[in-house]
Write a structure and sequence with these properties.
nine-stranded mixed β-sheet; alpha/beta; two-stranded antiparallel sheet; ATP-binding; 26 helices; EC 2.1.3.15; 11 strands; 731 residues; ClpP/crotonase-like_dom_sf; disordered N terminus; disordered C terminus; 2-enoyl-CoA Hydratase, Chain A, domain 1; 4 domains
Length: 731
């Protein structure tokens, strides 16, 4: 490298362009170039370089330090690394996350704290709990936990679906796939992170997975836009749908979004058009499409990837056109009435399956999917494989037709009313005459008419009991033979139709009679003036608060639960004695009737209870030939005693009736026990704060005077409107 001289006399020009010096490499030098004037009107281009900047000067007299000897490490033989199974930036979270508990889990938290406190106190005094005692305590806690999560209300399931620690789409993908490769981009300038697409394998079968991805913490939620896709996300999903359809890969979509992102930019970029395009195109794909709802499915944002052949919903997932909070704000102008809106909307998995909007419910681990994510993923994988086995048997035309018909029938409901049979005496007599006519025609057709007529004439002429008994036995044998040949008669269908109608009329007649008698007994309880007045006032307060019991004043809750409990016990006593129910069954049905008391739904509830009990009783009688014979004997004795005063009260009939009632009660109890056989041992209900206050409240010696003169707010401690009992307490 040469140093460029500053004077033109020091070096010869290198070219005719008056540039002095030799070319320099600028990789390791700092170059400064410029021009300056020389002489008359001429200019010289100069280049300066600091060539010593990167060099270090060492003292030649100083001996270099000897380098320390490095120990030779024998490296173990390592196998070449395999390619990772999941090509995605998403990684499982390290460490354990602090559990987040929901409001309805408060009773469980209290039990857990008591168990921990008991263990701590025992450890402090050096006492070890016996294993049997500890197992009993934990068993009761487990049963209580199962019951709490089995009987969740719709709004509680909404809260579980929104749980911050609920497994996301990619959490499940890592657990259920053998290999997964994430694919990016909508080929229109953006890759929406709220929708994740990729190819994955389950037991050798390749699937196209498309799902809405939420975050597991604040940072991820901001990155994923809280699971709310933009138009780019839906176009990205559509791109890979077409890719899967072209190569014949089944499509599995995962829904977990509160809705499509509704900001100004998304609307400007065509959010509605992107969703509509997905809906239209998904109806035309010739591969099986399975949709799994993981958490909440919000309106069109969820439906845009949910046009499928089979929709599977996790047990605690929800699917709605508007969130419960939004619905309550629109209908009642109060977002706090979201629990009521959740009940009315029918948004839970089981309710949607009953409405034929969803196809199956995937069970979750007790406590929700977040309590055991791997088990939840395992269940999802099993349902995907089973559903895929079912859909793989269908041709392309059948898949398209099934998907189309699935959505076409949504919203079509036919209310089928139970046919009301005419149970008037004239109608019953006419039906009997029709049955006799058809029966005689059938006997003539199969050749038994003359034989039966002859035996009946001889039976009427019989004088001695032995002759009568002999003829009756012959007639029974002939009737058994007739029953074998009766189906061959030409008019057998008409005869069977009349016979079935007679059975239904008899059943309706007995049900109406039971309902009338039971209604009269319960009416005496409901028509009590004091009870009716208190219920009317409480119902007025609840109605003024839009029917939401959870937001009432605690004092009103206490009064309401107290009155309903009294009514429930009185009704249970009547049901147990009249319908031959066990105490448990009578209490459950009385609880249902007490809830509907003094409302327009009470008559329907009463009819539902009576029909259910009559149906169970009929099944019990059909399964017990001995009981059936006894009931036939009772019917015959009553018919023989008709017209004879005092014959119905004979000891023989009364003893037989008592035996029949005992057997029916025993059969109903056995039937109920069979239903509860696989259920956990019943525990005391987890009571709300109001119900606990009802039990803890000291009972007054005299008859309490309860007088409510205004709405719930007027019952508060600071109000001048107080009940006489509160005023007496204050004094």
């Amino acid at each position: 490298m040469a140093l460029v001289p500053q004077s033109p006399k020091m070096a010869a020009p290198s070219s005719s362009t008056s540039i002095f010096g030799t070319p320099l490499s600028t990789k390791r030098t700092q170059v400064r170039s410029g021009t300056r004037n020389i002489g008359r009107g001429g200019s010289v281009f100069t280049v300066k370089a600091n060539m010593f900047r990167k060099f270090s000067f060492l003292n030649p007299l100083k001996k270099p330090k000897p380098e320390p000897e490095q120990k030779k490490l024998v490296k173990p033989e390592t196998k070449p690394e395999k390619c990772p199974d999941h090509f995605t930036d998403f990684k499982p979270m390290k460490g354990t996350r602090k559990p987040i508990r929901l409001a309805f889990e408060k009773p469980l938290i209290e039990i857990e704290e008591k168990i921990a406190d008991l263990k701590r106190k025992c450890a402090a005094v050096g006492f070890e709990l016996p294993p049997r005692t500890l197992e009993a305590i934990e068993s009761r806690y487990k049963q209580t936990r199962e019951r709490v999560f089995r009987d969740l209300t719709p709004i509680q399931r909404v809260n579980i679906a929104r749980h911050p620690q609920r497994p996301t789409f990619l959490d499940h993908i890592i657990n259920i796939t053998d290999r997964f490769t994430e694919l990016h981009g909508d080929r229109a300038g953006y890759d929406d992170p709220a929708i994740v697409c990729g190819l994955g394998k389950i037991d050798g079968q390749t699937y196209m997975f498309v799902g809405q991805q939420k975050g597991r913490n604040t940072k991820e939620n901001v990155k994923r836009n809280f699971g709310m896709p933009t138009p780019h996300g839906y176009r990205k999903a559509l791109r890979f749908f077409r890719y899967a359809d072209h190569f014949g890969f089944p499509i599995v979509t995962f829904v977990d979004t509160p809705g499509a992102f509704a900001d100004l930019k998304s609307e400007y970029l065509g959010q509605a058009e992107a969703i509509a395009m997905n809906l239209r195109e998904m109806f035309g794909f010739k591969v099986p499409i399975i949709t799994i709802v993981l958490g909440e499915g919000g309106s069109g944002g969820a439906l845009a990837i949910a046009v499928c052949n089979k929709m599977l919903m996790l047990e605690n997932s929800v699917f709605f056109v508007a969130s419960p909070e939004a619905c309550a704000s629109i209908l009642w102008k109060k977002a706090r009435l979201a629990p009521k809106a959740a009940r009315k909307l029918k948004i839970t998995a089981r309710e949607l399956v009953e409405l034929d909007l969803a196809d199956a419910v995937i069970p979750e681990p007790i406590g929700g999917a977040h309590s055991d994510p791997k088990l939840a993923s395992k269940l999802i994988k099993t349902y995907i494989k089973n559903t895929m086995n079912e859909l793989s048997k269908m041709s392309e035309e059948e898949l398209l037709s099934q998907r189309y018909q699935k959505f076409r029938k949504m919203g079509r409901f036919t209310e089928e009313k139970t046919p009301e049979f005419d149970i008037s005496p004239q109608a019953i007599e006419k039906l009997k005459m029709n049955i006799d006519d058809e029966y005689n025609k059938a006997l003539s057709a199969i050749g038994f008419k003359a034989t039966v007529d002859l035996l009946e004439q001889e039976l009427q002429k019989a004088k001695t009991p032995s002759e009568r008994e002999e003829l009756e036995n012959k007639l029974k044998k002939v009737k058994l033979e007739i029953n074998q040949h009766l189906p061959t008669a030409p008019n057998y269908p008409a005869l069977k139709s009349h016979h079935d109608m007679m059975k239904n009329v008899s059943r309706a007649q007995s049900t109406a009679k039971v309902k009338q008698e039971l209604g009269e007994k319960l009416k005496r309880i409901l028509d009590n003036p004091d009870t009716r007045e208190r219920f009317d006032r409480l119902k007025t307060i609840i109605k003024d608060d839009e029917g939401d019991l959870g937001d009432l004043h605690p004092a009103v809750k206490i009064l309401y639960f107290n009155e309903r409990k009294k009514l429930q016990y009185q009704m249970a006593k009547v049901l147990s004695s009249f319908l031959l129910l066990s105490n448990r069954a009578a209490f459950e049905k009385a609880k249902y009737l007490a809830k509907k008391a003094y409302s327009e739904e009470y008559e329907d509830a009463l009819e539902e209870v009576v029909n259910g009990v009559m149906k169970d009783t009929e099944e019990v009688v059909q399964k017990s030939p001995k009981l059936r014979r006894k009931m036939e004997l009772v019917t015959k004795l009553y018919s023989d005693a008709e017209g004879k005063p005092g014959a119905e009260l004979s000891p023989k009939i009364q003893a037989l009736v008592t035996d029949v009632r005992r057997r029916i009660r025993k059969g109903l109890a056995a039937r109920e026990a069979a239903k509860l056989k696989n259920e956990p041992k019943p525990e005391p209900e987890v009571k709300s704060e109001a119900e606990t206050n009802v039990q803890d409240e000291p009972k007054p010696k005299g008859k309490p005077i309860i007088k409510i003169t205004t709405r719930a707010k007027a019952i508060g401690p600071d109000s001048k409107f107080k009940s006489q009992a509160e005023a007496k307490d204050k004094n």
